[in-house]
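Section 3.1: Structural characterization of target chains.
Under the original work plan, the team committed to producing a structural model for every single-chain target entering the pipeline before any wet-lab resources were allocated. The record below documents one such target. The sequence was received from the expression subgroup and is listed exactly as submitted; it comprises 114 residues.
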Amino acid sequence: MSEFKSQAYADDERIFSIGDLAEHLYFIENGRVDLLNAQGNVFASAFAGQSFGEAAILEGGVRSASARANGIVDCRLISAADASTLLLTHSPLLLVILEALLLQQSMHNTLRNQ
């Protein structure tokens, strides 16, 4: 993981917003990130050792939720291209399966935001 850029976020800092182009997948090293729907309500949280922002793996991925730091947060940013390369080195089929699951998750998030 050390080859990926490290980024710190202050308490209550917006990491990304609904509708943003999904350029990075995030891996939390320290802290907590809240995921928010279109109304600004927290519907999930991610903690150290977890990832969020998986829409970056989808070509042309767009954020279907917003992410906000809850306290000080340290993340590793994995670019969309790097995430795809990592997946393809294990199995090309893995990327296809993950894309299908992420599309399904995106549809659920869209419905949740209505």
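The longest helix spans residues 92-112.
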